[in-house]
């Protein structure tokens, strides 16, 4: 399939309403404007400061305090807030949605999104849950940028009875934002993302907290000598705590299943270390390289050493 | 202390012998030449291809198959090979070392380095173990670059009876390579690095292998959707298997102790997820942010979102 990155074209929606304008919402705004995808954009968020900033940045023509006010007249509504807010938002916007509108979301879990949103969708509105697999550790309206979705995958998890032309339209929308689109069930999504995103975040949070609470190594030492690998984990662990709380509360089974496997495998590695079994260690370490090669071949990461960080980390003397 | 990054000056050693010219050895060569630190550089490594390449790249004036041949006439010898090779190398070079020479290493573990090297050092030779806390996931003579040590810490772990002027000279050497120098005991080094480097690598290797052996999620899916966090772990897990095998075989106690703490803490997180304890999750996730801020403040990582990777990961359509 041809990739449509950055190709400006005809708008396919007259009005886009973004419920939440943080990292993902603001990036959608940047990328949709880059591609000329929508007539205009409005938004909603609870905090006055966020609303002011989103208008200042030109992310939206107008921000509303109430999601119900933002969705009026919108033919595309995307929930871009933490997953734990979905049920309330869906309930309040339901009665105000335009007939024929498409409602979607970007939440990192999908079964719970469907559970919380679908029941509140009126007849004639097309609900199709989605998740762009792209992000950074930053949040808020200033964090977004147009290129976030370029070359990344967006997963859509439509129900069986989905309107084919609504699905095609949403698919085109994400492609013109820069993504490739994959379709799967919400349950399978949650299993895949548990291992590729949720458990990685959990163990990153965990090791950072373990390091912060040692008696024999100070926080200052942990920070000073973090370039040996630890600093990579601190980046992921700087992600928004509320967003991630909601992910773990809403993808419990899949996360616990993957965590069980992780712990089992870690126990085996631990035993190999305890018994000095170098052959097992070397074998397991060697196998892990194949996956890295796959990630790079699939253009899902830069092949540059150290993420190309070399150029950006400057040669200043470290602060003691 | 003034930082001496990139400042060319008088040589402080007449001949540097590098035993091993992989990522670290070749980076020392680049940085030492940048700073005009040494008269000339020779090297040793077992593989003919590596020796040829190191000469082609101009990393050394001459490569030798035998470490004993490389150390003749050298007033600074640095072991830059996997830690498991140290005992044999120390034994074979011992009788050939110049009186007054400084012998050091760059190994990621220090108690074992001292255990394996010190007994073979003749009288009048100054042995001071060291570890530059800097690296990438790549290896071999082509992987090195002059900036690797800029703004990073190099830890030296001299014995109690160290010659003060030899220590000062080695300290100046590392500073002019671009590093700050910290002095501590080998035992404390191994504890600090267990949490800031060894356990992070172990859990990265582990989650990559867990992901590769699932029945319900294919390797292809793991790779495609790796941008949700997993790809960061694949980078670390692409590091050299032999080097890391030797690290775990030679820092067993500290790694097992830190791994025990990690697993305890992970169990607590797992319980919070199982029982839907959002307050505990949010609290633990929030705390992790402070350490990230510390790492950035100490100039041990770039403040740019996503390691600044945005600029380097290009917008090509991903390979299916
Ligand atoms: N970050 C990632 O890497 C990533 C990647 C893919 C998907 N996601 C998903 O994207 C969604 C948003 O994440 P993000 O990273 O963009 O978060 P973010 O930067 O923290 O932004 C969250 C936005 O949601 C708004 N919001 C919070 N409560 C709300 C409510 N009750 N009603 C309406 N708006 C509300 C916030 O507004 P105020 O500022 O006014 O509170 C803010 O604008 C989450 O569901 C997350 O799972 C995130
Ligand atoms: N990679 C990192 O991030 C990092 C960071 C700090 C410290 N260190 C430490 O630095 C050391 C080297 O790591 P590296 O990343 O530079 O590894 P590397 O790129 O794999 O290079 C290893 C070098 O050691 C040589 N070598 C292997 N066995 C040898 C022997 N018996 N005698 C002499 N030379 C031998 C290899 O030569 P052939 O190619 O001829 O086999 C190669 O030149 C290790 O002790 C490691 O713990 C690594």
UniProtKB/TrEMBL annotation, chains A, B:
Domain annotation Prephenate/arogenate dehydrogenase: ranges: 14-303
Pfam family, one: PDH_N
Span of the signal peptide: none
Catalytic activity as recorded in UniProt: prephenate + NAD(+) = 3-(4-hydroxyphenyl)pyruvate + CO2 + NADH
GO molecular function: NAD+ binding; prephenate dehydrogenase (NAD+) activity; prephenate dehydrogenase (NADP+) activity
Claim: Oxidoreductase is one of the keywords in the record: yes
Metabolic or biological pathway, per its Swiss-Prot or TrEMBL entry: Amino-acid biosynthesis; L-tyrosine biosynthesis; (4-hydroxyphenyl)pyruvate from prephenate (NAD(+) route): step 1/1
GO biological process: tyrosine biosynthetic process
Region (Disordered) location: 296-320
Catalytic activity, EC: 1.3.1.12
Family to which the UniProt record says this protein belongs: Belongs to the prephenate/arogenate dehydrogenase family.
NCBIfam families associated with the record: PRK07502.1 (NF005694)
Protein name in the entry: prephenate dehydrogenase
Originating species: Hyphomicrobium denitrificans 1NES1
């Amino acid at each position: 399939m041809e990739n449509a990155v950055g190709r400006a074209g005809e708008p396919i929606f007259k009005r886009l309403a973004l419920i939440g304008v943080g990292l993902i919402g603001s990036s959608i705004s940047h990328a949709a404007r880059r591609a000329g995808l929508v007539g205009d954009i409005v938004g909603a968020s609870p905090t006055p400061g966020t609303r002011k900033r989103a208008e200042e940045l030109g992310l939206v023509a107008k921000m509303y305090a109430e999601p119900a006010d933002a969705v009026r007249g919108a033919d595309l509504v995307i929930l871009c807030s933490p997953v734990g807010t979905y049920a309330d938002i869906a309930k309040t916007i339901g009665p105000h949605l335009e007939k024929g509108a498409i409602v979607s979301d970007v939440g990192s879990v999908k079964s719970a999104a469907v559970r919380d949103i679908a029941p509140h969708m009126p007849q004639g509105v097309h609900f199709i849950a989605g998740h762009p697999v792209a992000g950074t550790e930053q949040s808020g309206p200033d964090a977004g940028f147009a290129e976030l979705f370029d070359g990344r995958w967006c997963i859509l998890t439509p129900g069986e009875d989905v309107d084919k032309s609504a699905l095609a339209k949403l698919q085109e929308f994400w492609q013109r934002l820069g993504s490739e689109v994959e379709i799967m069930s919400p349950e399978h999504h949650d299993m895949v993302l548990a291992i590729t995103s949720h458990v990685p975040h959990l163990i990153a949070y965990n090791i950072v907290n373990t390091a912060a609470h040692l008696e024999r190594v100070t926080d200052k030492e942990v920070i000073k000598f973090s370039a040996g690998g630890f600093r990579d984990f601190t980046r992921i662990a700087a992600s928004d705590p509320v967003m991630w709380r909601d992910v773990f509360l809403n993808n419990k089974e899949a996360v616990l299943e993957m965590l069980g496997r992780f712990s089992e495998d870690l126990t085996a590695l631990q035993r190999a270390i305890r018994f000095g079994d170098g052959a097992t260690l070397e074998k397991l370490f060697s196998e892990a390289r194949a996956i890295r090669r796959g990630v790079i071949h699939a253009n899902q990461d830069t092949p540059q050493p150290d993420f190309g960080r070399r150029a950006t980390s400057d040669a200043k003397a470290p602060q003691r």
